[in-house]
Predict the structure.
Amino acid sequence: MKKYLFIAMLLAAFVLAACGGGTSNTGGITLHEVPAEYAGWTNPLGGDAAAIAAGKVVFETNCVSCHGATGLGDGEAGAVLDPPPADLHKVNELAGEDFIYFVINEGVEGTSMVAWKDTLTQEQIQQVAAYIRATFTP
Ligand code: HEC
């Protein structure tokens, strides 16, 4: 038993060491530092009921297959992914809306979370960000 504990601690140390440089991974979420061009962004559509309703459609069309209808990261396509899709409730707990806006635009390198800025319009990104913020409460 002790041996397993030791191995587990060793693995944990490796994982921690691999996460240097302003990036940390908390429960499948990579909390990058938000780059200057996105830092401090606030959503002009935040709290707007029509925008949130439009964001729900964007989410159901583009995101639900991985992140799941309830945002827990348990969508059908997401089940086989490594790392798994982020739990968006956790994202709301741990990160600000500028982080959410940044990752939707730019994606998360080395994961199947792709950049959406060339697929969706900026308005759609703001709408889906407003929907995530309003819906998947921590
Ligand atoms: C092909 C599967 C897939 C689709 C489709 C997808 N995502 Fe993701 N998403 C992921 C994965 C995997 C991660 C976890 C990345 C990581 O480990 O940091 C993630 C992470 C995130 C995060 C948290 C960022 C982070 O660092 O973990 C947000 C916010 C997010 N996705 C929003 C969206 C939105 C909005 C859409 C639709 C426009 C979307 N995702 C579509 C797979 C997907």
User: Anything to note?
Assistant: The pocket of heme C is lined by residues 28-30, 62-63, 65-67, 77-78, 81, 83, 85-86, 91, 100, 103-104, 108, 111-113, 116, 128 (CB under 6 Å). The helical segments are 2-18, 49-62, 64-67, 88-94, 97-106, 122-135. The two ends are 36 Å apart (CA to CA). Confidence is low (pLDDT under 50) at residues 13-21.
